[in-house]
């Protein structure tokens, strides 16, 4: 029986991988083109950021090394992690009782507790650690039920796993990470049934941007919209208003004093509430 040389076997494996991951041929058909929605300037954007080798997880490091030597070594590496043999090779098992013994994980956990709803990018900035390392430690914290991740409308935030935050609170804490949404809530608190034009004028953004933001807030149950003639007016839901007492430092009905009262007064005068057209600034 002919012996297969290692070089030949490697070449066959490479061809097989290329064949499996190669692009599929698209079948002919029609296309539906829809206009893209106007993006929220405050929405978190995920960009590809180069990271160093030492920021990779242990598994990714071994796979990277294996690929540099020979693709054939990937299978033993995957098997090693699949059966968790690293426990018997001197690695200490991370469990619920010692998951916070790591300085990095402890700092991340404290940051999440102090900033409920914090996003991945914001957490990376606060803790000043590499994104690869952060992802690894977040998985451990979630695996041991120390934290939970909540995804709303494409945005993911992290919370302490203590049943402290209800679904509506989680939604609003994620929303409040957007400066635009925060300003909209301040306007709605001061001026119930404010119109779209009035909100657009104060924020200095287009009417379509206001509509896009309001549709999201209405869909998430924090704002309701009503028609008043040819105008659409918006009202903050009572439960959402109660939640904002705790999370908006300048909430006008939360007993704000001093500078907060001054800022609320300035906001009140900056957004004239009318039942019809907004008067021209000329």
UniProtKB/TrEMBL annotation:
The keyword Transmembrane helix applies. Keywords: Membrane, Transmembrane, Transmembrane helix. InterPro entries: ArsR-like_HTH, HTH_HVO_0163_N, WH-like_DNA-bd_sf, WH_DNA-bd_sf. The chain crosses the membrane at residues 60-83. PANTHER family: HTH ARSR-TYPE DOMAIN-CONTAINING PROTEIN, TRANSCRIPTIONAL REGULATOR, TRMB. This is Winged helix-turn-helix transcriptional regulator. Gene3D superfamilies: Winged helix-like DNA-binding domain superfamily/Winged helix DNA-binding domain. It comes from the Archaea. Residues 254-282 are annotated as: Disordered. Residues 103-172 form the HVO-0163 N-terminal HTH domain.
């Amino acid at each position: 029986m002919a012996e297969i040389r290692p070089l030949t076997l490697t070449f066959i494996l490479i061809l097989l991988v290329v064949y499996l991951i190669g692009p599929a041929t698209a079948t002919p058909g029609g296309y539906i083109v829809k206009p893209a929605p106007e993006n929220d300037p405050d929405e978190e954007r995920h960009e590809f950021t180069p990271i160093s080798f030492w920021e990779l997880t242990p598994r990714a490091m071994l796979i990277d090394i294996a690929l540099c030597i020979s693709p054939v070594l990937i299978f033993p590496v995957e098997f090693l992690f699949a059966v968790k043999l690293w426990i018997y090779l001197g690695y200490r098992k991370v469990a619920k009782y010692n998951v916070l013994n790591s300085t990095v994980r402890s700092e991340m956990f404290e940051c999440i507790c102090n900033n409920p709803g914090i996003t991945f990018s914001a957490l990376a900035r606060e803790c000043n650690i590499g994104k690869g390392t952060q992802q690894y430690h977040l998985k451990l914290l979630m695996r041991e039920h120390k934290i939970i991740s909540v995804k709303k409308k494409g945005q993911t935030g992290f919370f302490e796993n203590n049943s402290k935050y209800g679904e509506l609170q989680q939604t609003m804490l994620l929303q409040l990470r957007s400066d635009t949404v925060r300003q909209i809530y301040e306007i709605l608190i001061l001026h119930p049934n404010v119109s779209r034009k009035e909100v657009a004028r104060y924020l200095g953004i287009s009417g379509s941007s206001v509509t896009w933001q309001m549709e999201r807030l209405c869909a998430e149950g924090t704002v309701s919209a009503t028609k008043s003639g040819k105008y659409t007016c918006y009202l903050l839901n009572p439960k959402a208003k109660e939640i904002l007492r705790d999370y908006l430092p300048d909430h006008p009905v939360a007993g704000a004093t001093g500078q907060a009262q001054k800022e609320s007064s300035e906001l009140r005068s900056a957004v004239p509430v009318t039942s019809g057209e907004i008067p021209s600034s000329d």
